[in-house]
Amino acid sequence: MKITFIVPAIGKKPGQKYIGTWKMEPLTIAVLKALTPPEIENETVTAELFDDRTELIDYDTKTDLVCISVETYTAKRGYKIAAKFRERGIPVVMGGYHITLCPEEAAEYCDSVIVGNAETVWGRMLLDFYHGELKKRYTGETAEYEIQPDKSIFNGKKYLPVSLVETGRGCIHSCEFCSISRFYNSRYYSRSHDLIVDDIQKSKHRYTFLVDDNLVADHENAMRLFEKITPLNIKWAGQGTLSMAKNPNLLKAMKKSGCEIILIGFESLNKENLKQMNKSFNLSLGERDELVKRVHDAGIGIYATFVFGYDNDDERTVEDALEFAKKHNFYTAAFNHLLPFPNTALYNRLKTDNRLIYDKWWLEENYHYGELSFEPKKISAEKLSELCRLARKEFSAPKTVLSRGFASMGRTSPLMWSLFWAMNLRLGEEIDQKMYVPIGENLDELPK
Predict the structure, then answer these.
(1) What digits encode the pLDDT tens for the residues 356-375?
(2) Which of 269, 325, 342, 407 has the greatest number of CB atoms lying within 10 Å of its CB?
(3) DSSP for 241-310?
(4) What is the pLDDT of residues 65-90, one digit of tens each?
(5) 2-139 architecture in CATH?
(6) Starting from the edge strand earliest in sequence, which strands make up the sheet with 65-69, in order?
(7) DSSP code of 136?
(8) What is the pTM of this model?
């Protein structure tokens, strides 16, 4: 019995390589591989992986079952890939965030869907398939994920030289635009610290990204984790919130354990926007400048993210965010337009207000990466898209990068200095490459 795992790409322009910073290890596949038994009822089970981001898919491969992990950005491509295998009579199972948010839609394009986390249902699904009793839907529970990913499935793949190690799932906040809070009902689930340590020790890379939607959601849990990984002498990055800056002991423990960069979603500097996105907790944290300074003084660089498209956004709010990012010489920053993910509170509000340009932008033939899928209130969709692009260009301009680079040298370790230049120069090159990528299309792929 052979299983074929597939990771769909977002899309690719003709004649161009896939975007470099989009080539991270697909950790979900390694977890599924670990969940897959070596045999079922005395029959050997083997697995292969095709990553649409780095290689062409062999649609003629001899296999029994195809399993596709789908995000909203990759749904259209995933459905097209599924269709080609189903034409050969090979059953397709789909799972992932998008499938959980849109199971009825996905069911039209595959033979079975997995809703929620796969840990509690993966083995049962495989057994049902083996006996010819594959069900249309399997619903996984949010269980303890006491399993180590099997990264042998990545052998021979060309991913960025960064190890991904999961430390937790979910987030305690309920931001309107966030599909994660919708997926986990605004709860946080930590992973076993012993498993995290073991995972890190097995890493073959010098740099680790701790995969967590909010690493500091639970300060006590985070402190215990940092104490556990400190002896490992690693350098790591992760995602958190500015709330950590109110806890000096937490910052100190983060740095001591090897934290070099933390991604912080500032999202907006506008109070009314923060209230509308249900992120008003950012307002209660005190003066942003002081909190940012505390993070930097602790020797931790910040990857700042901003999102535009809320009802009080206009040219001024984009400019304010850019100036704020330049003022603090952030390690790097993202200036993104708002994207209404399906079945989130944001999507439902925009649909009720008749402001969606596309009802399902992720399936729309004419939708491209970088375009808005709804009409903002104070600015046109086209203008806001362009302002986001220009903000990225300005923040990646040589003069700004030089200033940020020298600031980074004063905060982070020597290992991070070379990474800074590699990351920021690459981001600068990729700004226009990413704009208008045709969602769901690989225009260099030969038709079958």
Answers:
(1) 999 999 999 989 999 999 99
(2) 325
(3) -GGGGG-HHHHHHHHHTTEEEEEEEEE-S-HHHHHHTT-GGGGGG--HHHHHHHHHHTT-EEEEEEEE-S
(4) 999 999 999 999 999 999 999 999 99
(5) 3-Layer(aba) Sandwich (3.40)
(6) 46-51, 2-7, 65-69, 92-95, 112-115, 137-139
(7) S
(8) 0.91
